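From the thread on structure requests for the teaching lab: each student submitted one protein with a one-line request. Submission from student K.M.:

"Model F-box associated beta-propeller type 3 domain-containing protein from Lactuca sativa, tokens only."
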Amino acid sequence: MDETVFGFGVCPVTHDPKIIMIQQFAPLHEKPSKINDPREVMLYTLSSGKWTSLSPASSNVLSKSIRVQWYGQVIDRFIYWSGLHLKALNSRLIRWNCNLILSFDMTDHTFQVIDLPDSLAKHPPSKISIFKLRESLVIFQSNEKEKQCHDVVWMMENNGVEKSFTKVFAIIAPEYGSSIRAMGLRNNGTLIMQVKKDYRCEESEIVVYEPKTQHLNALKIDGVRSFSTVNSYKETLVLLGSE
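Reply posted by the TA:
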């Protein structure tokens, strides 16, 4: 099954819109014997008007042992994805090894793998989400325990070449059990979440968590779980074909 992932951003240096395409297949369709081979990665730039293949040598293209999730976040000159590191058990089986963050630099077209703290690296991959808070990368970690939801929000900090992760705040919401699904962050730091209205059905509602007051407020927006999305936007004018 084809699970190709795309990323889009505008280079802050050249102001050239770019699309990155990372070809990958479902884990069951990946061959363990080729797990260390480089993935096929294509780059489209508006200035050239064409797709080009990135060289593994010059762009540090990731190997097939690294998989990225669907949605990326653009911060400054980087596109970030949450990802997985896979390990071949034998000639037929591949298993998840740890979580990671993958970045793509739009200025020099290179990839970098960012390691996570153990509490995030070994957490179930489906319980890890990344978001953008102003100009910082934020990780939402969902923890389910005894029908309660103790979720943690982390922020990535740049310390020169090294990157560290700091716990920003935690959410304890027993009234929603384990039904919380993070959807995004507002610029003021409030977290937008989707929660089930009733465990017996898939109907859900959108709520906002205020870290300072630790209150959850419903936005009176209903929907169906996993079929609702929240996206940020920025008013930008790009003149196509202009010199």
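TA comment: The mean pLDDT is 82. The CA atoms of residues 9 and 18 lie 6 Å apart.
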